[in-house]
Amino acid sequence: MNILTFDIEEWFHIKFDNNFLEDEMSLSNYESRLNQNMEFIFDALDSSGKKGTFFCLGWVARKYPKIIKKIDSLGHEIGSHSNNHKLLFKLNREELREDIKISKNSIEDLIGKKIDIYRAPSFSLGEKNSWMIEELIDFEIKYDCSIFPATRENGGFPSFVSPSPCLIKTKNNCEIKEFPINFYNLFGKNIIFSGGGYFRIFPYFMIKKMMKESSYVMTYFHPRDFDPDQPVLKDISLIRYIKSYIGLKSSKNKLVKLLNDFKFECVSEASNIIDWKNVPIQYI
Ligand SMILES: [Zn+2]
């Protein structure tokens, strides 16, 4: 099972990964690259006949409603990727509730459909803030794709029960269906390869081999992953530079090859295939 997902945000939303000083207004000072990058993604999916799940920011829904409507009208699935990409572990319970509410409302008002799929910005839902799952359930989120089951700069959940679909159960006996990021065991090391900087850095023949040998793959791409002409942010760490700007010249070709070489499902289609009675359970 290969799940195709995209996180719909501007190239500059990664600024929130390192500092928390920008407000929503100041973001409009940056050059917009989203429309042109989305056109590439739409074309690539159209030519290969693939449908995916698009996790969209509430910010994008308000600023670029046409993009959200186009994703919907082309038959793709839409989930929430938070309101404006603030790292979740920096929010308290009230701030989180407000963030989920604004994001969901912004998208739902546009497309007239309930949003019940969610991915945290920068996978910032981990061991320390796993209680946030309760709030997602309270907002009628049924499927979560926020768990990165390894150590990560912004969060990560290294003790997570499984790098494959599972149920997360809360103390109140509520549950959510979880689709975590998968990894591949390469020479005894667990390697992430299915999205973002990892997808751009590995050569395609390796990605193809790892995909073929994996029974479950959760991809995660961003419009900026396919934009070699995007501006480079100043004052970022070397690791962030490598993660954000390496491999941009060859990534368009890689995505096109991937879409042609493999079958993909969106999140709800994948959920219909899974036998949820026989998956691992993570208690929080
Ligand atoms: Zn994101």
**What are the bound molecules?**
zinc ion
CATH topology (fold) name: TIM Barrel
Give the C-level CATH assignment.
Answer: Alpha Beta
Spans where pLDDT lies below 50 across 5 or more residues: none
* H/E topology pattern: EEHHEHHEHEHEEEEEEEHHEHHHE
Kindly name the structural category.
alpha/beta
N-C termini distance: 26 Å
Helix-residue proportion: 25-40%
What can you tell me about this protein's structure?
Helix 2 (34-48) runs parallel beside helix 10 (251-261). The mean pLDDT is 93. The strands form five sheets. The protein has a five-stranded mixed beta sheet, with helices on both faces. Strands 2-3-4 form a three-stranded parallel beta sheet. It contains eleven helices and 14 strands. It has one domain (2-283): Glycoside hydrolase/deacetylase (TIM Barrel, Alpha-Beta Barrel), CATH 3.20.20. The chain is globular and about 50 Å long. With 284 residues, it is α/β, with parallel strands linked by helices. Zinc ion is lined by residues 7, 9, 81, 85, 121-122.
SSE diagram, text form:
Layout: E1 2-3, E2 5-8, H1 15-18, H2 34-48, E3 53-56, H3 58-63, H4 65-73, E4 77-80, H5 93-111, E5 117-118, H6 132-138, E6 143-144, E7 151-152, E8 155-156, E9 166-169, E10 175-178, E11 184-186, E12 189-191, H7 196-201, H8 204-212, E13 217-218, H9 238-245, H10 251-261, H11 267-273, E14 281-283
Parallel strand pairs: 1-13, 2-3, 3-4, 5-6, 6-10, 9-14
Antiparallel strand pairs: 7-8, 9-10, 11-12
Question: Briefly, what is this?
Answer:
This protein is an alpha/beta fold and 284 residues long. The protein has 11 helices and 14 strands.
